[in-house]
Amino acid sequence: MSDRDVSPVYRLQGVVKAYAGQEVLRVSDLTIYRGKVLGIVGPNGAGKSTLLRLLGFLEPPDRGQLAFAPLGGGLTPLNGREVPLDWRRQVTLVFQRSVLLNRSVAANVAYGLQLRRERDTGERVREALAQVRLADLARASARTLSGGEAQRVALARALAVRPRVLLLDEPTANLDPYNIGLIEGIIRQLSDQHDTTIVLVTHNVFQAHRLANRVAFMLQGRIVEVAPVEQFFAAPRDPRTAAFVRGDVVC
Questions:
Q1: Where are the alpha helices (DSSP H) in the chain?
Q2: Fewest 10 Å CB contacts: which of 68, 118, 200, 247?
């Protein structure tokens, strides 16, 4: 097994998150590996998006240890301290509902680069738009885009900053097959060719099967099971996982 197979980017141990006194997430133990795609599946309200927010450093855990391996370093626990800016810049989260500025498509894609005070952003913007096949809409207003186009612009904005970790919250929800195929192709390319670590939240178990190296099933704020993709679908250990994979209602 190579270093790429075993090098962790995140490790969560005893992590708990609550809102207004109500616990919504409890992760006993979870490791996320470099250059791999972790698919997270489960019903609504299972805590999937909350987990992404913690991984994206948008919120801290209330209890437990969240450790991250920054570029060139090993796993380092946060232990309640402020997340360093260079850590934040290595991780990008794309939300289910894309929020675009009232500007051109190119200006939206350049926004993250400008926040980082990057110079010569034009080539990076053109490269990202070409990757999502929207180069011909660079000068168009974001207000004129279809839902699928807007989601691809949001993804291009994330790609332009070349993140080490890409967190995707239902990136193809409510999209047509063409846009789904494009986005899934980009996810494969990022993992296979660019060593990007990807955490993909999806309701679509078939999508998780197509894209993920490992899959985690979440229920009521807890991770019921996490396993390599073939094992997860062919021989799940937990009966609740098996029921979810079959398409049964699990709550």
A1: 3-6, 48-55, 85-88, 105-115, 122-131, 147-160, 177-194, 205-211, 229-234, 239-246
A2: 247
- Tell me how far apart the 2 most distant CA atoms of the chain are, in Å: 53
Predicted pLDDT of residue 250 = 83
Residue 197's nearest CA partner among 96, 95, 91 is 91
* Residue count (the chain): 251
Which residues on adjacent β-strands are paired with residue 104?
141
Kind plus residue range of the DSSP H or E element containing 135: none
In terms of pTM, does the model score above 0.85?
A: yes
From 88-92, 114-118, 181-185, the region with the lowest mean pLDDT: 114-118
Report how far residue 59's alpha carbon sits from residue 117's, in angstroms, rounded to the nearest whole number. Answer: 24
Structure tokens at 245: 């994979």
